[in-house]
Structure of NADP-dependent oxidoreductase domain-containing protein:
Amino acid sequence: MLAVNDRRIIVKKGKDSLDICQLVNGMWQASGGWGSIDHDDAVNAMLQFVDAGLNTFDMADMCN
């Protein structure tokens, strides 16, 4: 089952559900595997997204 509201998608299967934002922020740069990053800048960027109501992050540094 899929339910959608303003910014969130709720995916339910059986007793489990996953409540995610419709916009997912890719954070592959934050892993540091693709070059050096400023950790404070990365955390501040994530907090700005959360403050804007965007609270779903894809933390994979690569996909196969």
